[in-house]
């Protein structure tokens, strides 16, 4: 199903910086009428089309308040995420839990809160990673592999209410999350453009770079 961006209303979690901010900018550049951009410590926006909302995705109450406020949104982007818990053997177990709590359960809280209003043509976008399919990043990899699986099951669960579910997969991208890594990185604006293309065309998945397209081959479903 396709979703027209022009005049639409969207929510982007973590939409005030990094990839989330690039997605907000791309949605607005393509004609979205209003975008709710969340942050745990929000800064005012100078753009009248941006509604800044304080939200913590690990807190179901905070997410429910966001869904109430953004009751007119028909596009929801689960972008908020954290890295950490690299070693499954030696990282603090609470840190491992907290990465999974944010990246998997956070996305699930938001999805459950918004699912009713996405019925009848809405779009849910969940940002996973190439590390859904590659080893070596401990808790982060677990959270993104689980999110891949969740994306595939949510697509089945939501298809009978006519809601698109788009899984987004990407390698290193130039944001503060990987600022200390000296490696080639995607431009967040380019990833954002592909995500918004995917929303518009009703894609099941967005594979943002060559490494991700290669890693996807062979992963069933
Ligand atoms: N950068 C990469 O190389 C890369 C690669 C693959 C996938 N990704 C994924 O892309 C997404 C965006 O990450 P990024 O690269 O833009 O990283 P980033 O610059 O570190 O931004 C992370 C965003 O997540 C929000 N966030 C984190 N924890 C949150 C929580 N508990 N509740 C609400 N919001 C929370 C932050 O919002 P505030 O701090 O403003 O509250 C911030 O906007 C993440 O899902 C990440 O896993 C990134």
How would you portray this structure in words?
The chain has 221 residues and is α/β, with parallel strands linked by helices. It has a single domain, classed as Rossmann fold. It is built from six helices and seven strands, in the order βαββαβαβαβαβα. A seven-stranded parallel beta sheet has the order 3-2-1-4-5-6-7, sandwiched between helices. The model has no long low-confidence stretch (mean pLDDT 97). The protein binds NADP nicotinamide-adenine-dinucleotide phosphate (NAP).
Number of helical elements: 6
Alpha-carbon distance between the termini?
Answer: 19 Å
The CATH class assignment is Alpha Beta
Q: Helix-strand pattern, N to C?
A: EHEEHEHEHEHEH
- Mean of the pLDDT scores? 97
Query: Can you tell me the CATH architecture?
Result: 3-Layer(aba) Sandwich
The major β-sheet equals:
7 strands, parallel
Percent of residues in β-strands:
5-15%
- The overall strand count is 7
CATH-assigned homologous superfamily? NAD(P)-binding Rossmann-like Domain
CATH topology (level 3) name: Rossmann fold
The helix content, as a percent range, equals 25-40%
Q: What class do helices, strands and sheet pairing give? A: alpha/beta
Which shape, going by the Cα principal axes? globular
Ligands in the structure?
Answer: NADP nicotinamide-adenine-dinucleotide phosphate
Q: What gyration radius follows from the Cα positions, in whole Å? A: 16 Å
The residue ranges in which pLDDT falls below 50 over 5 or more consecutive positions are none
Q: How many separate domains make up the residues?
A: 1
Order of neighbouring strands in the sheet with most strands: 3-2-1-4-5-6-7
InterPro entries: NAD(P)-bd_dom_sf, SDR_fam
GO molecular function, one term: oxidoreductase activity
Protein name: Short-chain dehydrogenase
Organism: Mycobacterium aquaticum
